[in-house]
Amino acid sequence: xxxxxQTVCGAIVAQAIFNKKLGRSAALFGAxxxxxxxxxxxxxxxxxxxxxxxxxxxxxxxxFIPIGGLIAALPFLLRSHWRQxxxxxxxxxxxxxxxxxxxxxxxxxxxxxxxPFTNARYAWDNMSIIDPLFTxxxxxxxxxxxxxxxxxxxxxxxxxxxxYLGMSxxxxxxxxxxxxxxxxxxxxxxxxxxxxxxxxxxxxWRSIYEADGMLxxxxxxxxxxxxxxxxxxxxxxxxRLDDLAAPLKxxxxxxxxxxxxxxxADGYLAVIGSAADDPILIGDVRYxxxxxxxxxxxxxxxxxxxxEPRAYPTGIETRDGxxxxxxxxxxxxxxxxxxxxxxxxxILEGE
Length: 351
Fold this sequence. Notes:
Elements: H1 3-22, H2 25-35, H3 48-54, H4 65-73, H5 80-83, H6 86-105, H7 132-148, H8 152-186, E1 192-197, E2 204-211, E3 214-221, E4 229-237, H9 246-249, H10 252-264, E5 269-272, E6 280-284, E7 298-303, E8 310-315, H11 326-338, E9 344-345
Antiparallel strand pairs: 1-2, 2-3, 3-4, 4-9, 5-6, 6-7, 7-8
């Protein structure tokens, strides 16, 4: 999630556990432990596509938590005062570090939680990467606990966080049921599918699934108190390495770049633009500026090139036929949060 959320989550857990023994310093150690795993964004690689895949890698893994906690506390242990309380300092930094990978797994980006035992990217898809309704109450709890020098506000805020996360899991299950219903109505057998909340909320979701080599996207509104509704979306062909022209798919660099990007995007790739375009744009369609469409925000560009083709990461600016742009799509997204006039009710099995 965003750096502010990671920082306050680390701080609130450390306050809830260590405030009585460390006082206000518990929040400091927890906050540093909570944000420091994202140090991997500063790692440099010769291939920038690899850099995408390396974010949320080993620094986010469960096995790295005790090492990370020690790293986060180490600068403070240079002072004699903190060396006397080294166990508490390391403990607070460690619990802060432990929150980071778990919170990131709640989003859709993917986290190497069980590295080195598996290279799978775990993404539970029940939280947006930015969610003010989750972050702000926790931030208030941190400030309140600091002001009062008390554990109770931190524990109240932590309880709220668990309740909110529980509600997000319920929301995710509701939208997954809608996805299954839509696929059945279309006569599709889902090969794999995901549903993800759109930016900053738990109400408007993106449903995307693969069936018979095609990807199908739909927008789903799931009010906490009310019926789930859907706006049927678009479809696009799944982008595969073997679908590229022979000179490209046989090139070692192109093959490696495509496979790395596909692993990063969990295989949810589609060609954006016409086949005649140069470069060929392949988007990560887990994310879209339109919940029921294919307007990805990033991807890779493959240039046919002479003498050698190349692939590189790129942002994707999508424009539709009537001159719409990113701002209009974001405005439509905001409108859909509060206006269900374009949506239809879905009758789920058992209702």
